[in-house]
Specification:
Layout (H helix, E strand, L loop, with lengths): L17 E2 L1 H6 L12 H4 L12 H29 L1 E2 L6 E2 L1 H27 L9 E2 L1 H5 L5 H30 L2 H28 L4 H17 L18 H6 L4 H29 L2
Parallel strand pairs: 1-4, 2-3
This protein binds fe (ii) ion (FE2) (2 copies).
């Protein structure tokens, strides 16, 4: 079987529309950012909640994003289990137990794809109604398996922990037990996936500080790419919160969570400053 599969060759039928990050942020339907309803204008919070004017579109867009993310997570974990020979973790090899963990993760993600597709349908969304951002799989294409663990398992599945926590709360507030329970079960799996990433990254790079530093740097780049201009942060002004406790359970140190929190905060402030300038220029 072929190794190292490029993103262009992912198998999708003609319902799917793929896009990159820049296009996605400009897509008005992916409305989970801070532009449309500021916390100030709504009073208390800007979290995705049923009382938001754009709640339906925001929740459906996010759910579709979760579904395509699950497909790519399945593809990425499957590739990592297959692309590298079993060995001691040096060079192009990965420990056999890491392959087993990736295979187990692929099994979990396949289940998540089914659950997310059914939830999307339940929420009234058709496959392909929103664009598919392929950044997750791209982060799973590195030639260094440790970078895949940092970029996918820690950065992007860390984000999944935050998103699932928010969607679980949305389901609870909306009185939708299907959404609430499904998100809770998937969240439990994601915590184990992030923990796998944390544990294996530390273990494989135990005697190679340069490789570890490079992986953590890549993780920060991916985290920053997905800070969405402050769409996720500990501030109530952001639609998605930072799930601090679940991140701790997934092997993030307090310092690491603080770093992500600061990056999110800066991204939010940057976005707000840019909005102020735009509003002033428009005379509103
Ligand atoms: Fe998943
Ligand atoms: Fe996962």
């Amino acid at each position: 079987m072929r190794q190292f599969f490029p993103v262009e060759d992912l198998a999708r039928d003609d319902r799917f529309v793929q896009t990159n990050m820049a296009e996605r942020l400009a897509d008005k339907r992916t409305d989970i950012d801070v532009r449309k309803s500021s916390a100030k204008s709504r009073g208390a919070s800007n979290r995705i909640a049923p009382d938001r004017r754009d709640a339906s579109a925001a929740a459906r867009s996010l759910m579709h994003g979760i579904m395509v993310g699950e497909i790519q997570a399945l593809e990425g974990a499957g590739r990592t289990a297959h692309d590298f020979e079993a060995g001691d973790g040096s060079g192009d090899t990965i420990p056999f137990e890491l392959k087993l963990d990736m295979a187990r993760q692929a099994w979990d993600e396949a289940r998540h794809v089914e659950i997310s597709a059914k939830l999307s349908d339940w929420m009234g969304t058709e496959i392909g109604e929103f664009a598919e951002n392929t950044v997750l799989f791209e982060a799973a294409c590195s030639n260094d398996p440790v970078l895949r663990l940092a970029g996918v398992n820690r950065a992007l599945e860390g984000l999944a922990i935050d998103v699932f926590t928010q969607m679980k709360e949305f389901g609870q507030l909306a009185g939708d037990p299907y959404l609430e329970f499904c998100e809770d079960w998937m969240l439990a799996d994601e915590v184990t996936h992030v923990k796998m990433g944390s544990d294996w990254l530390r273990k494989v790079t135990e005697k190679d500080p340069d490789r570890r530093a490079k992986a953590l740097e890549f993780q920060q780049i991916v985290d920053k790419l997905f800070s969405f201009g402050g769409a996720r942060s500990e501030s109530e002004e952001s639609p998605i919160g930072l799930a601090r406790r679940f991140r701790e359970l997934a092997g993030f140190t307090d310092d690491e969570v603080d770093t992500i929190s600061k990056m999110d905060h800066d991204a939010l402030e940057e976005r707000k400053a840019a909005l102020r300038v735009a509003h002033e220029a428009a005379g509103v």
